[in-house]
């Protein structure tokens, strides 16, 4: 939605996102975490989430937003080791997209994600991916701690346990949006579309 001054925001909960109503393609990054077979194979709703993510990524690129895909490697049995095909990116990114490797569930941990986002001057983050209650939520909390304005896509974050999805969303919305806001891909795309016509 765009107001008369060209300011745009999204019908999300518990507040319209971004909070200041200043959605901008030049400040926006879509961070898609955990998109490797290691995670997607564990998420029964991944196929539906992937459709939403693809639509959001296309809309975001059209307004100059950055799309970042993250892969996660680590020791032990909780993450695939480097070189394990189960940890490879499970999608084909567009030429302008970036792929970042993390050393833990949190996409900011032991990797360059924060540096990459700041180098591109992106402070409005849309989060999605595989493992709502694991990779996506860990990345969201870390982004929040770093001062990013965050929106999590409910239809773009596939949980490992669907029974935990509502609880994951509730922890984001609580206390007036302690970890940002939650919304749907259709709402985001609708708000991005007018940005193409803004000077």
Describe what this molecule looks like in 3D.
The protein has helices at 37-40, 46-62, 113-119, 132-145, 165-177, 185-192, and strands spanning 28-33, 66-72, 98-102, 124-130, 149-158, 181-183. Helix content is 32%, strand content 19%. It starts with 27 loop residues before the first strand and ends in a 7-residue tail after the last helix. Helix 2 (46-62) runs parallel beside helix 6 (185-192). It has one domain (28-193): Isochorismatase-like (Rossmann fold, 3-Layer(aba) Sandwich), CATH 3.40.50. Strands 3-2-1-4-5-6 form a six-stranded parallel beta sheet. It is globular, with a radius of gyration of 16 Å. It is built from six helices and six strands; from the N terminus they run E-H-H-E-E-H-E-H-E-H-E-H. With 199 residues, it is of the alpha/beta class.
């Amino acid at each position: 939605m765009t107001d008369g001054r060209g300011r745009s925001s999204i019908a999300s909960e518990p507040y319209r996102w971004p909070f200041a109503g200043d959605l901008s393609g030049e400040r926006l990054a879509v961070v898609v975490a955990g998109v490797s077979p290691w995670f997607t194979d564990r998420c029964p709703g991944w196929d539906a989430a992937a459709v939403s993510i693809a639509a959001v990524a296309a809309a975001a690129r059209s307004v100059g937003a950055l799309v970042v895909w993250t892969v996660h490697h680590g020791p032990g049995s909780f993450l695939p080791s480097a070189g394990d095909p189960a940890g490879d990116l499970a999608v084909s990114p567009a030429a302008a997209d970036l792929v970042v490797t993390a050393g833990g569930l949190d996409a900011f941990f032991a990797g360059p994600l924060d540096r990459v986002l700041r180098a591109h001057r992106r402070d409005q983050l849309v989060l999605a991916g595989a493992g709502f209650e694991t990779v996506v939520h860990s990345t969201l909390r870390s982004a929040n701690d770093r001062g990013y304005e965050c929106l999590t896509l409910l239809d773009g974050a596939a949980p490992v346990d669907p029974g935990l999805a509502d609880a994951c969303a509730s922890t984001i919305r609580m206390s007036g949006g302690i970890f940002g806001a939650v919304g749907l891909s259709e709402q985001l795309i609708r708000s991005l579309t007018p940005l193409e016509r803004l000077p």
